[in-house]
């Protein structure tokens, strides 16, 4: 039972009706995520990564194939799923504390209890003292932390993260990555972490999958043999990291080149 | 109050070791002095600017009133155009001796009551229907042609119809005000409910919000700034509705005063009625602005707040 995948996609396909006809965003995607696994997804821009997450979260139904969460087909939003969106999605008219307390409140917790739990998470993501601030009074990095606390306060079993840190500067990003690993350790949650940044993917994940240019499907999967707990800044300097980086980058480079040739986007950060 | 322990821990630590513990309240460093001086200078400049603005406004009003008074005395016919002193005397008369229709306060209370009822009912109806149709594709598809047709009817004409339906009492004026307010509010509420950020809705659904919770905690607050914007204009419409309704047929109210004044070619009476109505509208505007500021506290301050109208 323990190693049954929590999330599995079986030949999942998603088509959109676009301006120029039917557009296939995800094609024949097969993918398993084990309980507690940290999976990073990299791929050229516009290839269908966000679409994949929306299939898993139940926000979009698959056009063909199957999406299973805990063995059951996804209809509506599965219980235990948390999703940090690519775009800002915190409520601008609620203070930090009330934003974080929103999930528990909606799930039926009493106001006092919801706020108590929210207060703990606000502190854990390093925003202690900002409880009464409104989102427009926060920096971009702080807003991302609010979103993180908002998601984690529900104690999700599956955490979907769509380029959560891509808008942050390098220092804040490093800090947030460490924080994420710290907060994730011990939760036992399965994570699908979409990113453009291959370094980020490798330093965080247990496994990295490379997606093909649109329509997205899994091109290759790489296990990351780095030990935990990790310090993202230090792990990047190890020889093992550089080896695996080269290997993944070789695979990704071709897709990025194809994506550029198709003119779909600017490709992927290549920082090393 | 330095909230972020990680970033400001050291700063807080140094700040708690005062260099001059004997003078905790006075400015400590030249930089502080500069700051205080700059703030004081900016405040003084702001005050001066405001004083100039008010002085120019006052001057404009004085010039206008004096030139009106003078020209009405020497050149043009005050019978048609009246003049400020005549209007002033008419106002004094109304407030001290009463009007042709009775005490002025009764007239004001009547009109105000009609406007407020029409406003509240119209706003509630507009908000509820606007949000409902804004969120339901099916309902809005079904209702679109009817709403458009109803909106195209010259609504002031309805005042006459309502007098026939509801008689000369309050209800016909309330109905007129209601119809005017409804459309103003409805279209904004509809648009506001339509333009809700999909991300916010999706995020709420993932976090566990039910359909009703999405409506109450996402859609309604998102539409609030749209709705509040329409309420400003809407109270003006409610007053127009009440006054036009009274004008069409009534036994009390400011509209009746204006109609009576018109019947006796009393230009000063028309102006006096106008002025009272305007004052009421301005007071309502002021109250609504207060409400708006309270409800939209979460919004970033508007750049160049002075320039706001
Ligand atoms: N709701 C939609 N309607 C129509 N087309 C869509 C919709 N959502 C996504 N698409 C299309 O599907 C493709 C994949 O989009 P997706 O957002 O999944 O890309 P992505 O891999 O997340 O890109 P990025 O890395 O830039 O975020 C794009 O070509 C996009 O135009
Ligand atoms: Mg995306």
Automatic annotation (TrEMBL), chain A:
* Residue ranges annotated for the ABC transporter domain, each copy included: 7-238
Q: What does the UniProt keyword field contain?
A: ATP-binding, Glycosyltransferase, Nucleotide-binding, Transferase, Transport
List, alphabetically, the InterPro entries matched: AAA+_ATPase, ABC_transporter-like_ATP-bd, ABC_transporter-like_CS, ABC_transporter_ATP-bind, P-loop_NTPase
PROSITE patterns hit by this protein = ABC_TRANSPORTER_1, ABC_TRANSPORTER_2
Which GO terms label this protein's molecular function in UniProt?
ATP binding; ATP hydrolysis activity; glycosyltransferase activity
- Is Nucleotide-binding given among the entry's keywords? yes
State the protein's name.
Answer: Mannosyltransferase
> Taxonomic classification, please?
Bacteria, Bacillati, Actinomycetota, Actinomycetes, Micromonosporales
Q: Which gene encodes it?
A: ssuB
From TrEMBL, chain B:
Tell me which InterPro entries the record gives: MetI-like (IPR000515), MetI-like_sf (IPR035906)
Q: Does the keyword Methyltransferase apply?
A: no
Predominant location? membrane
For the biological process aspect of GO, one term held by this record is: transmembrane transport
Q: Which UniProt keywords apply?
A: Cell membrane, Membrane, Transmembrane, Transmembrane helix, Transport
Residue ranges of the ABC transmembrane type-1 domain? 108-288
Subcellular localization, per the record? Cell membrane
Matching entries from Pfam families are given as: BPD_transp_1
| Region Disordered, residue ranges | 1-31
Topology class, membrane: Multi-pass membrane protein
Keyword flag Nuclease: no
Q: Which GO terms describe its cellular component?
A: plasma membrane
Q: Where is the composition biased (Low complexity)?
A: 8-31
Q: Which residues cross the membrane?
A: 54-76, 115-134, 146-168, 174-193, 214-247, 267-288
Q: Per the similarity annotation, which family is this?
A: Belongs to the binding-protein-dependent transport system permease family.
Annotated protein name in UniProt: ABC transporter permease
Please tell me the species this chain comes from: Planosporangium flavigriseum
Lineage here is: Bacteria, Bacillati, Actinomycetota, Actinomycetes, Micromonosporales
**Corresponding gene?**
ssuC_1
């Amino acid at each position: 039972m323990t190693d049954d995948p929590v999330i599995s996609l079986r030949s999942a396909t998603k088509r959109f009706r676009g301006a120029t006809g039917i557009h296939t965003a995800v094609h024949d995607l097969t993918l398993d995520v084990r309980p507690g696994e940290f999976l990073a997804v990299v791929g050229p821009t516009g290839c269908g990564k966000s679409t994949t997450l929306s299939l898993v979260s139940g926000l979009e139904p698959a056009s063909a194939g199957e999406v299973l969460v805990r063995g059951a087909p996804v209809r509506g939003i599965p219980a235990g799923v948390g999703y940090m969106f690519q775009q800002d999605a915190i409520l601008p008219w609620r203070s930090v504390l009330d934003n974080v307390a929103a999930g528990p409140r909606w799930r039926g917790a009493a106001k006092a209890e919801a706020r108590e739990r929210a207060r703990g998470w606000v502190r854990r993501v390093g925003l202690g003292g900002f409880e009464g601030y409104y989102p427009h009074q926060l920096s971009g990095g702080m807003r991302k932390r609010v979103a993180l606390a908002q998601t984690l306060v529900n104690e999700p079993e599956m955490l979907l993260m769509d380029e959560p840190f891509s808008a942050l500067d390098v220092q804040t990003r490093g800090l947030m990555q460490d924080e994420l690993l710290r907060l994730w350790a011990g939760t036992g949650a399965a994570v699908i972490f979409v990113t453009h940044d291959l370094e980020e993917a490798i330093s965080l994940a247990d496994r990295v999958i490379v997606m093909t240019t649109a329509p997205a499907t899994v091109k290759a999967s790489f296990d990351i043999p780095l030990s935990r707990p990790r310090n993202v800044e230090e792990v990047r300097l190890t020889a093992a990291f550089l080896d695996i980086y080269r290997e993944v980058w070789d695979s990704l480079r071709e897709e990025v080149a194809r994506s550029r040739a198709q003119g779909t986007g600017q490709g992927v950060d290549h920082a090393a | 109050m330095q909230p972020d322990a990680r970033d400001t821990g050291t700063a807080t630590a140094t700040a708690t070791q005062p260099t001059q513990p004997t003078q905790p309240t006075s400015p400590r460093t030249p930089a502080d002095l500069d700051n205080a001086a700059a703030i004081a200078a900016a405040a003084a400049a702001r005050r001066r600017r405001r004083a100039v603005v008010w002085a120019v406004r006052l001057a404009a009003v004085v010039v206008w009133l004096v030139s009106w008074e003078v020209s009405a005395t020497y050149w043009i016919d005050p019978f048609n155009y009246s003049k400020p002193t005549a209007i002033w005397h008419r106002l004094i008369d109304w407030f001290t001796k009463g009007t042709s229709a009775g005490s002025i306060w009764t007239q004001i209370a009547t009109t105000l009551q009609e406007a407020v009822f029409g406003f509240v009912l119209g706003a509630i109806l507009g908000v509820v229907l606007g949000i409902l149709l804004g969120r339901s594709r099916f309902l809005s598809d079904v209702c679109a042609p009817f709403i458009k047709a109803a909106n195209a009817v010259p609504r002031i004409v309805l005042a006459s119809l309502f007098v026939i339906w509801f008689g000369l009492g309050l209800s016909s004026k309330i109905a007129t005000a209601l119809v005017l307010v409804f459309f103003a509010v409805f279209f904004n509420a509809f648009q506001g409910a339509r333009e809700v950020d999909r991300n916010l809705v999706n995020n709420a659904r993932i976090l566990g919000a039910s359909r009703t919770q999405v409506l109450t905690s996402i859609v309604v607050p998102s539409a609030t700034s749209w709705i509040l914007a329409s309420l400003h204009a809407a109270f003006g419409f409610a007053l127009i509705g009440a006054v036009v309704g009274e004008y069409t047929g009534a036994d009390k109210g400011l509209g009746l005063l204006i109609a009576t004044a018109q019947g006796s070619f009393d230009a000063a009476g028309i102006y006096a009625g106008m002025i009272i109505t305007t004052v009421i509208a301005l007071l309502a505007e002021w109250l609504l602005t207060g409400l708006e500021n309270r409800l939209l506290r979460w919004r970033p301050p508007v750049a160049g707040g002075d320039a706001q109208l």
